[in-house]
Amino acid sequence: MSRNLPNRLFVRKIIRHYLRYDRDNPFIFISALLSFLGIAAGVMVLMIAMGIMNGTQKEFRERLFVMNYPLTILPMAQDAVNDTLILKLKETFPHLQFSPYYSTQVISKNDGVVQGSMLYGIDFAKEAKINPVFSKAGAKGDGKYRVVIGDSLANELNAYTDDKVTLYFSEQQAIGFATMPLQKRFLVDAVFDSGLNAYDKAIMYTTLEAFEKLLKREAGIYDGLHIFCEKPLKEIEKIRQILPETMIIEGWW
Asked: Which of 36, 117, 132, 153 is the most buried (most CB within 10 A)?
């Protein structure tokens, strides 16, 4: 209390000095009082605006990063990202979470509506640990050909949980003496909502086994590796030092 006393006395002295009523010049007193009130109102508005901006910035960052992984390892050569690499990273960085994936572009169709999307093949349990949006969707199926789609895509295709959608792949399959795009019916296991329509329309998830069966992907060799960490700016350099030249690591930035 004794430390704050001089400050209070100083403030009172300043206020009394500048806001003291002057009988000879009442207009000066009124002008000073209005100026003081204007400055006080301006400071209060500034504090409120800063509080709103801080909350808006936090919300914007959460929305922006909700489907962007902190770090991603991409292969520069075939077979570079594999189970051996993942095991090495887990031993070196036990505090990090890893989710390997396959990826391909597909066209989804249902009720006469078609939509292009990016399909990821993932381990559902590992992805749920690093992706809160996917985890919240609550995929519970155990089949090989199941898919988790975004809320916007589900509304557009009129396909929801336990419905089926047709996916067309860029790979070709032989039909008699001709070929046609590979297609497969998938069961909608769950629907996620990231809060961003662009992500909800463009991203779909299925199992690793579906990729290995339909697209003949070799088990244990992946298209990339998503990594979750609290401080990606620091971890990226540590991880880069142990990676071979056949792969690169990228951050969300």
From this structure: 153
Q: Which two tokens stand for residue 174?
A: 């032989």
Extents of the domains making up the chain: 4-64, 71-251
Give which of 104, 88, 76 is closest to 214, Cα–Cα: 104
Sign, CA dihedral 166-115-138-211, equals positive
Task: Report yes or no: 241 and 73 within 8 Å, Cβ to Cβ.
Answer: no
Torsion from C-alpha of 93, 99, 105, 108, nearest 10 degrees: -160
68 bridge partner residues:
none
Question: What is the enclosing helix (H) or strand (E) of 152?
Answer: helix 151-157
Q: Is 81 exposed, middle or buried (0-12, 13-18, 19+ CB in 10 A)?
A: buried
pLDDT, one tens digit per residue, over 76-113 is 988 899 999 999 999 999 999 999 999 999 999 998 89
**CA–centroid distance for 236 within its chain:** 18
| DSSP states of 16-77 | HHHS---SS-HHHHHHHHHHHHHHHHHHHHHHHHHHHHHHHHHHHHHHHHTTS-SEEEEESS
Enumerate the β-bridge partners of residue 228.
97
247, pLDDT greater than 70 = yes
Q: Say if pTM beats, i.e. exceeds, 0.85.
A: no
Closest of 144, 167, 151, 248 to residue 200, by C-alpha: 151
For residues 35 and 242, what is the distance between their CA atoms, to the nearest angstrom? 63
Task: Please give the structure tokens belonging to residue 244.
Answer: 């071979």
